[in-house]
Design brief:
The chain has a single domain (12-115), classed as Thrombin, subunit H. The chain is built from one helix and seven strands. The chain has one helix at 98-115, and strands at 12-13, 17-23, 29-40, 44-49, 58-65, 68-81, 87-93. A six-stranded antiparallel beta barrel has the order 2-3-4-7-6-5. It is globular and about 40 Å long.
Length: 117
């Protein structure tokens, strides 16, 4: 028996290092560091970090995708314990500019094609 994917956007399993910066409601920097993506979609990422981030915080992430570096802003919609004492944060992107959206779409397309071979 197969299960139907309920997610609206395709997610690719992708492990890329990235830089993140978290801000509070007054736009003060509260945490920054390195993490890695666990998966990427057109609307968000799942981020693995060594520190617990706060759900609801605004975050900027700079991701290396292929030969491109893109910086996107989003909101941490959930945080949960990960493996080996790490944490996983679900980040929903705010509106992307056209260039960043195009880079993400090309990246996802390339992984889909690779997975279908």
């Amino acid at each position: 028996m197969t299960t139907k994917e309920k997610r609206q956007h395709y997610r690719i399993n992708s492990q890329n290092l990235l830089n993140y910066a978290c801000y509070d409601d007054e736009n003060n920097l509260v945490k920054q560091g390195m993490g890695r993506t666990l998966n990427v979609s057109e609307v968000g990422i799942r981020l693995e970090t060594h520190v617990e981030l706060e759900a609801g915080s605004r975050v900027e992430v700079t991701i290396g995708l292929e030969e491109e570096l893109v910086t996107v802003e989003g909101k941490i919609v959930y945080i949960k314990p990960g493996q080996e004492g790490k944490f996983e944060a679900g980040i929903q992107f705010f509106e992307l500019d056209q260039n960043t959206g195009n880079v993400l779409q090309q990246y996802i397309k390339a992984f889909r094609e690779r997975d279908n071979q």
